[in-house]
């Protein structure tokens, strides 16, 4: 089962504040080597991490081709109106290389420690849905925008700048309501193998497709990204994403052709050594070949 979207590959870059030189080096390796995306987790309460938006802006100026996105934004600490402007501004400045990953929130003690709200699961889901509407309104280019929600309001806001390209909103969704929302409203889904193992993906995909059907959308409108945590090794392993190149190729090919995932954001050992180069040179081309249509 595929949704017809082009296969892509990205790197899950840790925003390590203790070695900014290495962070920049990895991003530039990805840019030169031909990775499609770099995803950066957003945990503002984590003292050993750089601020994600500041890092994205810095990397946009130090790379040329690779697209960048927060993987995913901690929404309770990022007001959506200002977030929309920040994302659109960076997209304009980078020549259309920014996407927006959104999450409802996690690690609530850390959020509370920074003065953010504590929300119940239901509140977090409702706030995320409102945020999607607010962000899209503020990317519309319209003046005098209004929105009255339970959590967020716009009172005659002038939107802009408009993003340089049709920027995607990708949701880090796991639960049934979030998956349904992804199908109804989002441009992409970005779970992590740590929380959504491969065996869980088909049922989750079905919930997204149900949400898309409810909204009259085609399931192919939603990109299916997967944060894959593992390492390239020398010996086969029963553990997913931990083994030689051939095992990686087989596993990712299966996820693309049988499960419908179209983008793989790879989290490799820290530091990755030559694994960044090995993955894009040895694994990615073989997966692309396996997934490519074979004829009319």
Would you summarize the structure shown here?
It is an enzyme of class 1 (oxidoreductase). This protein is an alpha/beta fold and 296 residues long.
Would you kindly provide a written description of the structure presented here, covering whatever features stand out?
- Strand 6 and strand 7 form a beta hairpin.
- The chain has helices at 20-33, 52-62, 80-94, 108-113, 121-138, 176-185, 201-214, 245-259, 275-291; strands spanning 8-12, 37-40, 67-70, 73-74, 100-103, 145-148, 153-157, 169-171, 188-189, 223-229, 231-232, 242-243, 263-267.
- The relative contact order is 0.14.
- It starts with 7 loop residues before the first strand and ends in a 5-residue tail after the last helix.
- It is an alpha/beta fold and 296 residues long.
- The protein has nine helices and 13 strands.
- It has one domain: Luciferase-like domain (TIM Barrel).
- Pfam families: Bac_luciferase (PF00296).
- It comes from Candidatus Promineifilum breve.
- Keywords: Oxidoreductase.
What are the SSEs and their pairings?
Elements lengths: L7 E5 L7 H14 L3 E4 L11 H11 L4 E4 L2 E2 L5 H15 L5 E4 L4 H6 L7 H18 L6 E4 L4 E5 L11 E3 L4 H10 L2 E2 L11 H14 L8 E7 L1 E2 L9 E2 L1 H15 L3 E5 L7 H17 L5
Parallel strand pairs: 1-2, 1-13, 2-3, 4-5, 5-8, 8-9, 9-10, 10-13, 11-12
Antiparallel strand pairs: 6-7
How would you describe this structure in keywords?
two-stranded antiparallel ribbon; 296 residues; alpha/beta; TIM Barrel; 9-stranded parallel sheet
